[in-house]
Structure formats: structure tokens, C-alpha cells
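TL;DR need C-alpha cells for one chain.
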Amino acid sequence: MGKPLDEIALDLKALNKKVQLIYAFNGTGKTRLSRLFKELVSPKVDENGEQATLKALYYNAFTEDLFYWDNDLDGDVDRMLKIHPNEFTKWVLEEQGRGPAIIEHFQKLSSGTIEPIFSTDFSEIAFKMKSDIKGASIKISKGEESNLVWSVFYSLLDLAIEELSSTEDDRSTDKFNGLEYVFIDDPVSSLDDSHLIELAVDLAKLVKSSSVGLKFVITTHNPLFYNVLSNEFSNKLAKDPNAVDIKWLYRSKESQKYRLDKDSAGDFELTILGDNTPFSYHLLLLAEIREALISNQVRKYHFSFVRNILEKTATFLGHKGWAELLPKADDGNPDPFANRILNLSSHSAHAGEETGEVEANDKQKLEYLVDYLSSEYGFWRQEV
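>> reply
TL;DR here they are.
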């Protein structure tokens, strides 16, 4: 049964987990969910109409709106990325002096050939090519701009965690004393796979090393980003890996993973995903086939699922065709019956041949193929 998005936000708040990781397609409502969640846990004013204590930090499309371009339309030379005045970038850049760390992180996630240059009052940023540092300022791409904004937020989050790890008397600011949640929505929309993995590993390490009771909600439309974070959150991080008596800061049971779906009526549903299996389309197909076998609800389209899985696996492993992955007959060629039934079930040209029923012998062959795929190519067998 679907729910309104504000009820999904309530569900996320009610679950006492250190990390909640959510996969959702673009356009599902991740950014709206981040706003509703922030308004729920950290409204701007309290019940008395006074400024409320900050309880949530969030990164989403609205975060990027703090930065805007002055394109120098008259001179077409001094292009600057302006920063709307706000207490957080002022604190990070001016009071904490984290400009060099932000530049380093930005260059780590980009080509490394661009040098951001902060103005003396930290109200704007110029960008120049390292090879032409005295030349005119350039306008960076939208993707590079997103990387810069993320680098500022990452430094803010790193500092907030560092502040909260100290006693209140030793903190340089009281801004984060009431902080409870961090909501991060899709920081990887413009990254290539290599930099995406690097960002995911760095973020997971920061989350797992946080011992201050913060809770994190992370949403993404990117399967690779989800998979890397899922794996990282299933591993432990030692407080001191070299200690004789190792103390763990993080346990995998403190995380929960979901898929967020939107139905045709505009309602939403959070589907819990397995703790040990990252979300991926071919794994979803395998799980559905196994469930159909157990419940004796096998249909012809399940053979199409198997062929789809074989095609993706063959491409990944570098084979010329999916049939090369089938079990072999005595003559060393692909099992002819398996090859034939997968072809017939996937590419029948006559509607009159289509029936919903599957013969018992074909069901046995389907189960054999699924077991063969799982054992031969290392697919994890999820309980259903």
C-alpha cells in the first residue's frame, strides 16, 4: 500500500538506524523527500515562533542554489561563481580556513587541471587552468560546479563531525550541538565511475568513523553508487585496526537499505532490500525467478529473464555471445535444449504459440539453469 511522501519521511525518522540508504529512479521524489525530512526534523522556527536549534544538515539541489554565476557579460573575462551569504560557508571558509582542503577535494573528484581561487572575503570563486594561472577566469561545467559544491559540503560535514567529537566546552562553535541527522541526495550526478567510487568510499568512511550519534539518510538514482555504499556499509571499520583489542565504531546491522518507488496514483513505497546484496537489475530478476520456482508460478517470461541475465553476464565477462555461458553438452558445445528453450521463449514470432503455462520438464530445466548460473558465475543466492 502506497503512502504520501510526508509519511515516508515519518517512517525514516521513526527507524533508529545510523544509516538509511535509498535507491530511486530520477523523478521519483528524492529531492522533495529530503526537504520534507528536513522540515520534519529541523524546522526553522520552534513552537514558540523562535529560531529552532539546527537538527539536520542536508545536501540536495537546493544546496547548489547557494552558488550562482556572474558571467561578466560586459567584459566576458572575469567570470565568477558567487556564494550567497550564509553562516555555514562563512564558518567553513573564513573561520575554519578550509579553502585549501576544499580545493584538494575538488581536484580529487575532477581532472585536477582546474584551480579554484577564493576571493579574500570568500564571497566568490574564480577558476583558472593550472597551465595558465595568470590567464582569464574560465566558467567550469555544470558537473564540475556540482563537484565544487559537494566539496564544500563534505568539508562542512567533516568539520561538524570533528566538532561533535569534542566536549561542548572545547568546541569552536555551538551551531552543531543539536545536530541529529544528515540527509544526502545524489552527490554523483556528474561523476565518471572512477571518481564516483572514490567519493562513495570517502563518504562511507566518514559516516562509519562518526561516533557522535549522527544518523544519515542517503538517496541516489545511480546503481553503482548505491552498490559501492551498500558494500561499504556492510563492512566494519575499526577504531584502531592495529590495536590488540579492536573496538568497532560501526556495525552493519546499524544500516538499512531500500528502494523508493512511486505508483501511478502518486503514492510512494519503501521496499527493504537485502542486507548483503546490493541492488542491481540482474539480481532482482534472479530473485524473482527463484520466488516463482518456489511458489510454482513459473511463466514463459521467466525464461526471458534468464536470457537477459546471461546477456548482461556475457558482456561483463567479455564473451562473444550469451550461449557461451550455458552448461556444456558432451561434445563441448552449449546445451542444445537450454539454448533452444531460451531462444523460443524469448523470440517467438507467433502470438498463437504463447501460453501462460510452462511444462514440468521446462520448469526443471529453468531451475537447473538458475542453479548453474549461481554456482558457476558466483551469483549470491538470496533467501526468498
